[in-house]
Amino acid sequence: MPYDVRPGVQGDAVGAVARRAPEAVTAPIAKAGRSSPLGPTVYSSGVNFSLYSRDALRVDLLFFDREDDSRPSRTIFLDPVVNRTNHYWHAFVPGVQPGQLYGFRAYGPYDPSSGLRFDPTKVLLDPYGRGVVVPKSYSREAVQQKGDNAATAMKSVIVDPSLYDWEGDSPINRPPTHTIVYEMHVKGFTAHPNSGVSEGNRGTFRGLIEKIPYLQELGISAVELLPVFQFDRQDCPPGRVNYWGYAPISFFAPHQAYSSRPDSLGPVDEFRDMVKALHRAGIEVILDVVFNHTAEGDHRGPTLSFRALDNNAYYVLEPDRSYYSNFSGTGNTLNANHPIVFDE
Questions:
Q1: In a 10 Å sphere around its CB, with 0-12 CB exposed, 13-18 middle and 19+ buried, how is residue 172 labelled?
Q2: I need a surface site. Which of 124, 175, 289, 314 has the fewest CB within 10 A?
Q3: How far, in Å, CA of 281 to CA of 216, rounded?
Q4: Cα–Cα distance between 62 and 71 in angstroms, integer?
Q5: 229: helix, coil or strand?
Q6: Is the dihedral of CA 308, 269, 36, 171 positive or negative?
Q7: How many whole angstroms separate alpha carbon 249 and alpha carbon 305?
């Protein structure tokens, strides 16, 4: 069963971790697994999970059947003796398949002055996950409040990259001097009915595929896409929407809202379909990426992933480690000089 470590409670951290939370979930059999590579790695017999957290005292791996489930269907409790190598927590879980929803809870001290912000009441995204689902009830404001957020939390999705058939696709590598770039916002490019895109595909990766003939007519040889990996649409002033996507929270997962498919693997497959179709048309794909900050904001921001896994590693902190260095102007700055962040 999960352990109860309440933010703000100081004292005997190990003793605090030993107090069990009330929920009870039957855990499937798991093996020790491997510390490398980070993230989920799919094999024919199951999935290996690896996560970095130097100061965690315990980590739980949670499986969910639906994106809005308030309780995990299964929980794997990672034994710090069996399932930890140095600062890496890992486990191999037999029988897990691509499309499975999952997340983590990390247990440890809540001591902002030391840069430690563990909060086991929050379900955390895998920094190395390749897919994300967002419940319709997701609330950034609710995530910032105390208490369990399982029902409204974003959740990671297991993806097996080897299952997709690229059909021999490869980068075009056209010389820059011969390149005509069209910069676009994936949703904005086809969201309006005057785009001519079928209604169900407007504002999606598939909608962009429908517009390839138009791009060819213009003589376009490359598209530069504004941020397309998962971001928090609610990372913005009240009453507004983060439209542009410069609020990343999962660097390897395509933004769920840009997929016309409702299933958990839809965004990943549809993004790859789009890239493959553009390449077939002789159009390169350039991504506008955001690697200097995350959607977790400053010290008042929500706990979504990084800050509750290893706040000291993932972020640049001020001398008073309760606060984030804000070189990005968005509330925090990724610590890109740290090996674990750089290798991500």
A1: middle
A2: 175
A3: 8
A4: 9
A5: strand
A6: negative
A7: 8
- Pick from 250, 151, 161, 260: nearest CA to 209: 260
CB atoms closer than 10 angstroms to residue 213? 9
Tokens of 312: 């000291």
N-term to C-term CA, the chain: 30
pLDDT (tens, 9 = 90+) of the chain, 344 residues, equals 333 333 333 333 433 443 334 343 444 578 999 999 999 999 999 999 999 999 999 999 999 999 999 999 999 999 999 999 999 999 999 999 999 999 999 999 999 999 999 999 999 999 999 999 999 999 998 899 999 999 999 999 999 999 999 999 999 999 999 999 999 999 999 999 999 999 999 999 999 999 999 999 999 999 999 999 999 999 999 899 999 999 999 999 999 999 999 999 999 999 999 999 999 999 999 999 999 999 999 999 999 999 999 999 999 999 999 999 999 999 999 999 999 998 76
How many helices, marked H, and strands, marked E, lie in the chain? 8, 16
Q: Is the dihedral of CA 232, 234, 237, 240 positive or negative?
A: positive
Q: Assign 3-state DSSP to the chain and report helix, strand, coil percentages, each to 5.
A: 20, 25, 55
- Reading the block at residue 23, the tokens are 């929920």
Q: How many CB atoms lie within 10 A of CB 332?
A: 27
CB 155 within 8 A of CB 132: yes
Q: Determine which helix (DSSP H) or strand (DSSP E) holds 252, and give its type and residue range.
A: strand 248-254
Inter-residue contact 135 to 157 (CB < 8 Å): no
* 157 contacts 132 by C-beta, under 8 angstroms: yes
By DSSP bridging, strand 110-111 and strand 181-184 are unpaired
Tokens of 123: 């379900």
Residue 20 and residue 4 in contact, taking contact as beta carbons nearer than 8 Å:
yes
